[in-house]
Amino acid sequence: MSKDKAYKILAKKHTLSHKQAKALIDKGLVHIGGKKLTLARAYIPSDSHFEILEIRTPQVLFCNDEILAVDKPAFIESYDLCTFYEGWNLLHRLDRETSGVILLIKEKSAFAKKCKEAFKEQKVQKEYRAIVHGRIVDSISIEKPISTIRRGFAKSYIDKNGLYAYTQLNPLAIVGKKTLVQVYITTGRTHQIRVHCQSLKHPIYGDRIYGIQDSAPRLMLHAHKIALLGYEFVSPIPKELQLEHWAQ
Protein backbone atom coordinates (compact mmCIF):
# COMPACT_ATOMS: atom_id res chain seq x y z
CA MET A 1 0.00 0.00 0.00
CA SER A 2 1.37 3.42 -0.97
CA LYS A 3 2.15 6.04 1.64
CA ASP A 4 2.72 9.78 1.67
CA LYS A 5 2.99 12.67 4.11
CA ALA A 6 -0.22 13.20 6.05
CA TYR A 7 -0.72 16.83 5.08
CA LYS A 8 -0.38 16.01 1.36
CA ILE A 9 -3.01 13.26 1.53
CA LEU A 10 -5.33 15.48 3.58
CA ALA A 11 -4.91 18.36 1.14
CA LYS A 12 -5.71 16.16 -1.84
CA LYS A 13 -8.74 14.46 -0.29
CA HIS A 14 -10.33 17.64 1.06
CA THR A 15 -9.29 20.10 -1.66
CA LEU A 16 -7.03 22.13 0.60
CA SER A 17 -3.71 23.84 0.08
CA HIS A 18 -0.72 22.21 1.75
CA LYS A 19 -0.56 25.19 4.13
CA GLN A 20 -4.22 24.79 5.13
CA ALA A 21 -3.79 21.04 5.68
CA LYS A 22 -0.72 21.56 7.87
CA ALA A 23 -2.54 24.20 9.91
CA LEU A 24 -5.49 21.88 10.61
CA ILE A 25 -3.16 19.10 11.77
CA ASP A 26 -1.04 21.45 13.89
CA LYS A 27 -4.19 22.73 15.62
CA GLY A 28 -5.18 19.18 16.58
CA LEU A 29 -8.31 19.19 14.45
CA VAL A 30 -7.56 16.12 12.33
CA HIS A 31 -8.24 12.57 13.49
CA ILE A 32 -7.70 9.16 11.91
CA GLY A 33 -9.59 6.19 13.34
CA GLY A 34 -10.64 8.22 16.38
CA LYS A 35 -7.06 9.26 17.22
CA LYS A 36 -5.62 12.73 16.81
CA LEU A 37 -3.09 13.14 14.02
CA THR A 38 -0.21 14.99 15.68
CA LEU A 39 2.49 15.14 12.98
CA ALA A 40 1.74 16.76 9.62
CA ARG A 41 4.78 15.17 7.98
CA ALA A 42 4.09 11.65 9.24
CA TYR A 43 3.90 9.03 6.48
CA ILE A 44 0.49 7.36 6.44
CA PRO A 45 -1.42 5.08 4.01
CA SER A 46 -2.79 6.98 1.03
CA ASP A 47 -6.28 5.58 1.59
CA SER A 48 -6.50 6.97 5.15
CA HIS A 49 -9.87 8.41 6.15
CA PHE A 50 -9.76 11.76 7.95
CA GLU A 51 -12.17 13.30 10.43
CA ILE A 52 -11.83 17.09 10.68
CA LEU A 53 -13.26 18.63 13.83
CA GLU A 54 -15.21 21.85 13.57
CA ILE A 55 -14.37 24.85 15.75
CA ARG A 56 -17.41 26.45 17.33
CA THR A 57 -17.84 30.20 17.28
CA PRO A 58 -17.25 31.95 20.64
CA GLN A 59 -20.47 32.97 22.39
CA VAL A 60 -21.06 35.97 24.65
CA LEU A 61 -22.27 34.92 28.11
CA PHE A 62 -22.50 38.45 29.54
CA CYS A 63 -21.47 41.96 28.58
CA ASN A 64 -21.74 45.44 30.08
CA ASP A 65 -19.52 48.52 30.20
CA GLU A 66 -17.13 46.84 32.67
CA ILE A 67 -16.66 43.24 31.67
CA LEU A 68 -17.22 40.75 28.85
CA ALA A 69 -17.64 37.04 29.62
CA VAL A 70 -17.14 34.71 26.66
CA ASP A 71 -17.72 30.98 26.24
CA LYS A 72 -14.46 29.97 24.52
CA PRO A 73 -14.59 26.83 22.36
CA ALA A 74 -11.73 24.37 22.38
CA PHE A 75 -9.00 24.91 19.74
CA ILE A 76 -9.23 28.71 19.76
CA GLU A 77 -6.28 30.60 21.23
CA SER A 78 -7.29 32.93 24.05
CA TYR A 79 -5.49 35.85 22.41
CA ASP A 80 -7.51 35.40 19.22
CA LEU A 81 -10.68 36.36 21.11
CA CYS A 82 -9.57 39.99 20.97
CA THR A 83 -10.05 39.85 17.19
CA PHE A 84 -13.68 38.81 17.73
CA TYR A 85 -14.40 41.58 20.25
CA GLU A 86 -12.75 44.84 19.28
CA GLY A 87 -11.84 47.15 22.11
CA TRP A 88 -11.66 44.37 24.72
CA ASN A 89 -8.52 42.86 26.26
CA LEU A 90 -7.91 39.54 27.98
CA LEU A 91 -8.05 39.51 31.76
CA HIS A 92 -6.67 35.96 31.94
CA ARG A 93 -6.24 33.06 29.53
CA LEU A 94 -7.11 29.41 28.93
CA ASP A 95 -5.06 26.79 27.12
CA ARG A 96 -5.94 26.38 23.46
CA GLU A 97 -7.78 23.07 23.92
CA THR A 98 -9.48 24.12 27.15
CA SER A 99 -13.05 25.31 26.68
CA GLY A 100 -15.17 27.48 28.93
CA VAL A 101 -15.69 30.91 30.43
CA ILE A 102 -13.00 33.53 29.91
CA LEU A 103 -13.10 37.22 30.80
CA LEU A 104 -12.18 40.35 28.86
CA ILE A 105 -11.98 43.93 30.14
CA LYS A 106 -11.41 47.50 28.99
CA GLU A 107 -7.66 47.75 29.54
CA LYS A 108 -7.33 51.23 31.08
CA SER A 109 -10.52 51.33 33.12
CA ALA A 110 -10.65 51.56 36.91
CA PHE A 111 -12.58 48.30 36.98
CA ALA A 112 -9.80 46.57 35.03
CA LYS A 113 -7.36 47.55 37.77
CA LYS A 114 -9.67 46.08 40.43
CA CYS A 115 -9.95 42.84 38.44
CA LYS A 116 -6.18 42.49 38.14
CA GLU A 117 -5.80 43.12 41.86
CA ALA A 118 -8.42 40.43 42.59
CA PHE A 119 -6.43 37.90 40.55
CA LYS A 120 -3.17 38.94 42.19
CA GLU A 121 -4.66 38.65 45.68
CA GLN A 122 -6.24 35.24 44.84
CA LYS A 123 -9.77 36.55 45.38
CA VAL A 124 -11.14 34.94 42.22
CA GLN A 125 -13.11 31.68 42.47
CA LYS A 126 -12.51 29.34 39.54
CA GLU A 127 -14.28 26.03 39.01
CA TYR A 128 -13.45 23.53 36.26
CA ARG A 129 -14.59 20.11 35.10
CA ALA A 130 -12.13 17.48 33.91
CA ILE A 131 -12.00 13.82 33.01
CA VAL A 132 -8.89 12.11 34.38
CA HIS A 133 -7.30 8.72 34.02
CA GLY A 134 -7.81 6.36 36.94
CA ARG A 135 -10.25 6.21 39.82
CA ILE A 136 -10.40 9.04 42.37
CA VAL A 137 -12.73 8.16 45.22
CA ASP A 138 -12.04 10.98 47.71
CA SER A 139 -11.49 14.71 47.49
CA ILE A 140 -7.84 15.71 47.18
CA SER A 141 -6.15 19.01 47.99
CA ILE A 142 -2.89 19.63 46.15
CA GLU A 143 -0.37 22.22 47.26
CA LYS A 144 2.67 21.75 45.08
CA PRO A 145 4.77 24.67 43.77
CA ILE A 146 5.13 24.98 40.00
CA SER A 147 7.84 26.37 37.73
CA THR A 148 7.47 27.05 34.01
CA ILE A 149 10.01 26.90 31.20
CA ARG A 150 9.26 29.09 28.17
CA ARG A 151 11.28 28.20 25.07
CA GLY A 152 8.97 28.82 22.16
CA PHE A 153 6.22 27.05 24.11
CA ALA A 154 5.46 26.78 27.81
CA LYS A 155 5.94 23.64 29.87
CA SER A 156 5.50 23.47 33.63
CA TYR A 157 6.66 21.07 36.32
CA ILE A 158 6.53 20.52 40.07
CA ASP A 159 9.44 22.37 41.64
CA LYS A 160 10.09 23.00 45.34
CA ASN A 161 11.53 26.38 44.34
CA GLY A 162 8.55 27.26 42.14
CA LEU A 163 5.49 29.42 42.76
CA TYR A 164 2.81 28.33 45.21
CA ALA A 165 -0.15 26.57 43.55
CA TYR A 166 -3.34 25.16 45.08
CA THR A 167 -5.79 22.78 43.40
CA GLN A 168 -8.71 20.83 44.86
CA LEU A 169 -10.22 17.81 43.11
CA ASN A 170 -13.68 16.47 43.99
CA PRO A 171 -14.82 13.26 42.26
CA LEU A 172 -18.28 13.51 40.72
CA ALA A 173 -18.56 10.18 38.92
CA ILE A 174 -16.46 7.12 38.16
CA VAL A 175 -16.96 4.90 35.13
CA GLY A 176 -14.46 2.14 34.47
CA LYS A 177 -10.99 3.64 34.78
CA LYS A 178 -12.09 7.26 34.30
CA THR A 179 -13.15 9.87 36.83
CA LEU A 180 -15.14 13.04 36.22
CA VAL A 181 -13.85 15.62 38.68
CA GLN A 182 -14.83 19.07 39.87
CA VAL A 183 -11.73 21.24 40.15
CA TYR A 184 -11.22 24.39 42.21
CA ILE A 185 -8.10 26.54 41.96
CA THR A 186 -7.14 29.71 43.81
CA THR A 187 -3.92 30.27 41.89
CA GLY A 188 -3.49 30.38 38.12
CA ARG A 189 -0.08 28.96 37.27
CA THR A 190 0.60 27.92 33.69
CA HIS A 191 -0.90 24.44 33.09
CA GLN A 192 -1.55 24.20 36.84
CA ILE A 193 -4.44 21.70 36.78
CA ARG A 194 -2.73 19.55 34.18
CA VAL A 195 0.56 19.41 36.10
CA HIS A 196 -1.10 18.76 39.46
CA CYS A 197 -3.21 15.93 38.01
CA GLN A 198 -0.13 14.41 36.42
CA SER A 199 1.69 14.60 39.77
CA LEU A 200 -1.03 12.35 41.25
CA LYS A 201 -0.68 9.90 38.34
CA HIS A 202 -4.18 10.90 37.21
CA PRO A 203 -3.44 12.92 34.05
CA ILE A 204 -6.29 14.55 32.19
CA TYR A 205 -7.70 12.70 29.19
CA GLY A 206 -6.46 14.14 25.93
CA ASP A 207 -3.40 15.80 27.49
CA ARG A 208 -0.66 15.24 24.91
CA ILE A 209 1.98 17.08 26.97
CA TYR A 210 1.49 15.81 30.51
CA GLY A 211 -0.69 12.77 29.92
CA ILE A 212 -0.61 9.39 28.20
CA GLN A 213 -1.79 8.28 24.78
CA ASP A 214 -5.58 7.94 24.62
CA SER A 215 -8.44 8.44 22.17
CA ALA A 216 -9.85 11.71 23.60
CA PRO A 217 -10.69 14.22 20.84
CA ARG A 218 -9.10 17.06 22.84
CA LEU A 219 -7.94 18.04 26.32
CA MET A 220 -10.87 17.10 28.56
CA LEU A 221 -10.76 20.27 30.66
CA HIS A 222 -13.51 22.89 30.86
CA ALA A 223 -13.62 26.22 32.73
CA HIS A 224 -17.13 25.92 34.12
CA LYS A 225 -17.48 28.90 36.46
CA ILE A 226 -15.63 32.04 37.53
CA ALA A 227 -16.60 34.62 40.14
CA LEU A 228 -15.03 37.94 41.12
CA LEU A 229 -16.05 41.37 42.42
CA GLY A 230 -19.72 40.42 42.76
CA TYR A 231 -19.97 38.83 39.30
CA GLU A 232 -20.43 35.13 38.57
CA PHE A 233 -20.33 33.60 35.09
CA VAL A 234 -21.09 30.02 34.10
CA SER A 235 -20.24 28.16 30.89
CA PRO A 236 -22.43 25.10 30.18
CA ILE A 237 -20.65 21.75 30.31
CA PRO A 238 -19.90 20.70 26.70
CA LYS A 239 -21.27 17.41 25.41
CA GLU A 240 -17.92 15.63 25.42
CA LEU A 241 -17.56 16.16 29.19
CA GLN A 242 -21.10 15.21 30.12
CA LEU A 243 -21.57 11.91 31.93
CA GLU A 244 -24.06 10.58 29.37
CA HIS A 245 -21.51 11.03 26.59
CA TRP A 246 -18.25 9.70 28.00
CA ALA A 247 -19.76 6.93 30.15
CA GLN A 248 -20.80 4.96 27.06
TrEMBL record:
InterPro entries on file: PsdUridine_synth_cat_dom_sf, PsdUridine_synth_RsuA/RluA, RluA_PseudoU_synthase
GO molecular function term, any single one: pseudouridine synthase activity
Keyword RNA-binding set for record: yes
Cross-referenced SUPFAM superfamilies: Pseudouridine synthase
Pfam family, one: PseudoU_synth_2
Signal peptide: none
Origin superkingdom: Bacteria
Transmembrane helix as UniProt keyword: no
Catalyzed reactions per annotation: a uridine in RNA = a pseudouridine in RNA
Span of domain Pseudouridine synthase RsuA/RluA-like: 87-199
Record-level GO BP terms: enzyme-directed rRNA pseudouridine synthesis
Keywords, sorted A to Z: RNA-binding
The family this protein is said to belong to: Belongs to the pseudouridine synthase RluA family.
Protein name listed in UniProt: RNA pseudouridylate synthase
Protein species of origin: Helicobacter marmotae
